[in-house]
TrEMBL record:
UniProt-annotated stretches for the region Disordered: 1-109, 124-162, 481-524
Name used for this protein in its record: Uncharacterized protein
UniProt feature, compositional bias: Acidic residues: 52-70, 85-100
Biased composition (Pro residues): 512-524
Source taxon at top rank: Eukaryota
Ranges annotated as biased composition (Low complexity): 21-33
Basic and acidic residues: compositionally biased ranges: 483-493
């Protein structure tokens, strides 16, 4: 039997009395309740139950030894009783602190379990969102492929329209050369209005001009057909729109210049008409002068009649007068026919030039309409390119979210493994540690829990920054969890007082065992 003042070791589980106190192998044992944190592992309070029973038995044996010692020797009873009362009060306080710390640790672990459940639920939601986003990205990729195919079709058709536009440009160049030749021929006609041979030559040239005009009209019809085909192709044109616009502007400037030239040619024809009118008036004045000469001749004839035979003079005068009248009449009729022919030809040529000018203006208007349609097609292509770029950005964001979800899964699995490992270590250590080691282990667990909470807070803040960087709105539950963790950290910093030093009785391996706690203290 041990003396009353001898300390007993805390590692009672390894002493010889454990064998006597342990139940026999064949005796039934009470079933252990399941732990709330998971599985069939015992909780910390359940792990403390054997220690409490051992402490109660040790205290009972110690009281029996004390009674025997008091019966044998009654030296200094008051002093011994006072010392015993102080030791029991101190140990009761240590055990109460240990129980409170264990309860707080269990509450922290339950909070960690709740956080794990919330993380698991959030991960499932993120997987659902990721699957939905993946479907959306697939649809977006299919739309992008369709847009690329449509752009390729636009490009091919625009190349065809470019070739047709080059053909039209060549035809317009030929038409311009023909118009220049017409202008040169008009100038030649103005210079070659002398004699019947020149009139025949002009007639042949007019015939050639008519043939050329007919050929030009056929070319214009051909150009109209080609322009209709080019308009159908230009509706789907995408890439060569700027070149066509430049060609159209150049053609418009050329047509404006040609219009000015045609107007100047019309003015020249009008001036030629005025000159022909003056020539007619001059011929008429000439015929008046011939009449005056005729009268003078008649006067001379009268004088001559006085000198020669009247009958002979009359016959000669009549013959000469009739000859002169015939010459004047033929000359006047020839001049009038020539003037009428020239005026009619000038009017016909002016009408043809006006028709050509109206056709060119209509062609310019059609080109402007085609340019507007091409601008609309270009705007649609730009819109498709912007949509494609936006879809690519969303696809990159979805890939980032998928990578983040994978990281969260890995982190969750790591936390699960660490938690299971920590639970196993806690269950193992609780049955092997003395009171001081339990208190230290509890404090270490609190520190680890705080570190895990800090890591969780940083990860959630990083996730919020990542979502904001990609233009997404974080969930309200995520923001509330971050606020809650920040609030807990702030409260912990405000209440972060240095822990009290361990009692002297709890330090060392030879301190006396604490008295048994009250029966209701382990229930929390």
């Amino acid at each position: 039997m041990a003396a009353p003042d001898m300390p007993l070791p805390l590692s009672a589980g390894t002493s010889e009395d454990d064998a006597s106190r342990s139940p026999p192998s064949g005796s039934p044992q009470e079933p252990q309740p399941f732990n709330r944190l998971g599985g069939g592992r015992p909780s910390r309070l359940q792990a403390l139950e054997p220690l409490r029973e051992e402490d109660e038995e040790d205290v009972a044996e110690e009281e029996e030894d004390d009674e025997d010692d008091r019966a044998e020797s009654s030296a200094a009873p008051d002093e011994a009783s006072c010392t015993e009362g102080d030791g029991e009060g101190e140990v009761d306080g240590d055990v109460g602190d240990d129980i409170e710390s264990v309860q707080r640790l269990e509450a922290d672990l339950r909070a960690v379990e709740d956080e794990k459940d919330a993380l698991r639920l959030q991960l499932e939601n993120m997987e659902t969102e990721l699957e939905t986003e993946t479907n959306r990205r697939r649809e977006a990729e299919s739309q992008v492929q369709e847009a690329q195919l449509e752009a390729r079709t636009y490009r091919e058709k625009s190349e065809m329209s470019s070739a047709s536009l080059r053909t039209i440009t060549e035809e317009l160049t030929k038409t311009r050369d023909a118009a220049n030749r017409h202008k040169q021929e008009l100038e030649d006609i103005k210079l070659s209005m002398r004699g019947q041979e020149e009139m025949d030559e002009l007639t042949r040239e007019l015939t050639e001009l008519r043939q050329k005009e007919n050929a030009w009209e056929m070319d214009v019809d051909t150009l109209k057909g080609e322009l209709h085909a080019a308009r159908r192709q230009a509706a789907e044109d995408t890439t060569a729109l700027q070149q066509r616009l430049q060609h159209a502007e150049t053609e418009k400037a050329d047509l404006a210049n040609k219009n000015g030239e045609l107007l100047r040619s019309l003015d020249d024809l009008r001036a030629a008409n005025a000159q022909m009118t003056e020539a007619i008036s001059t011929e008429r004045s000439t015929s008046g002068r011939l009449g005056d000469a005729l009268r003078a001749v008649q006067g001379r004839i009268h004088d001559f009649q006085l000198r020669s035979t009247c009958s002979q003079l009359r016959s000669d005068i009549e013959g000469s007068a009739s000859h002169i009248k015939q010459g004047l009449a033929s000359l006047q009729s020839a001049l009038e026919e020539r003037v009428v022919a020239e005026v009619g030809r000038a009017h016909r040529h002016a009408d043809a030039l006006a028709t050509q000018l109206s056709q060119r203006e209509e062609y310019v208007r059609r080109l402007e309409c085609e340019v507007q349609e091409a601008g609309m097609a270009e705007g649609r292509l730009k819109q498709l390119e912007e949509t494609n770029q936006k879809m690519l950005c969303e696809l990159e964001s979805a890939r980032g979210q998928a990578a983040e979800a994978a990281d969260l899964r890995e982190e969750l699995s790591r936390v699960k493994k660490e938690h299971e490992k920590a639970e196993a270590q806690i269950a193992k250590l609780i049955g092997q540690q003395n009171l001081a080691q339990r208190i230290k282990h509890t404090q270490d667990m609190k520190k680890e829990i705080n570190v895990l909470k800090e890591q969780l807070l940083r990860e959630r803040q990083e996730r919020v920054r990542f979502m904001q960087a990609y233009g997404q709105q974080p969930d309200a539950s995520l923001l509330n969890a971050i606020r809650r963790l920040e609030k807990e950290r702030k409260e912990q910093e405000d209440n972060n007082l240095p822990p009290p030093p361990p009692p002297a009785a709890a330090v060392g391996m030879h301190s006396p065992l604490p008295p048994p706690p009250p029966l209701g203290s382990f229930g929390g």
